[in-house]
Write a sequence for this structure.
């Protein structure tokens, strides 16, 4: 079997969501499902799905774990999530991507030729929580608890490809996230939901 066919997904669902009034952001709803539910749906074919964050509702069969220390940031969360990964390939995602699709995840995995491949948005910004990685390379990069806390610094030594996926006119970008009330309202409007 092609090693890229078998993969795991690590979804980072921590953070304090201060700009959203401290609400449990992964459990906010866009388009009839939670933000976290949308991301987990996009990786439904993963061998293992791991959510890293505080106690919250997850689908049956999904591993829920917590970084050490709690609230320790994305590198600590990634280290905790990778402990549950037993595949050669891992997809790393943010929990607030309501328009992520299985097709995009599949294309990322197909494009994985070196240590990793990540999405670059329409402004040219690297989306570090929207990528596919060789598990061994990523695990080695985050292994040192005393190492850098910023994810872009941790992966800077890896051999990473970047991909700017095309976005069809009138369709939401897969990297559209929901960090502020305005972004959440925009996502809900795109999904045809009332703003409240």
């Amino acid at each position: 079997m092609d090693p890229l066919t078998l993969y795991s997904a690590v979804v980072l669902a921590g953070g304090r969501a201060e700009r959203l009034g401290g609400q449990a952001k992964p459990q906010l709803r866009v388009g009839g499902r939670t933000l976290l539910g949308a991301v987990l749906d996009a990786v439904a074919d993963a061998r293992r799905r791991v959510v890293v964050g505080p106690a919250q509702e997850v689908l049956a069969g999904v591993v829920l774990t917590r970084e050490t220390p709690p609230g320790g940031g994305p590198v600590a969360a990634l280290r905790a999530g990778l402990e549950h990964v037993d595949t050669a390939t891992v997809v790393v995602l943010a929990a607030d991507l309501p328009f992520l699709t299985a097709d995009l995840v599949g294309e990322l995995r197909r494009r994985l030729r070196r240590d990793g491949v990540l999405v670059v948005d329409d402004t040219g910004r690297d989306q570090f929580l929207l990528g596919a990685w060789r598990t061994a390379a990523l695990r080695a990069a985050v292994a040192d608890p005393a190492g850098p806390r910023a994810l872009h610094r941790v992966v800077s030594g890896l051999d990473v490809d970047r991909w700017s996926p095309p976005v069809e006119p009138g369709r939401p970008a897969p990297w559209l996230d929901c960090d502020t009330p305005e972004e959440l309202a925009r996502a809900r409007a795109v999904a045809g939901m009332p703003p409240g």
Notes: The radius of gyration is 16 Å.
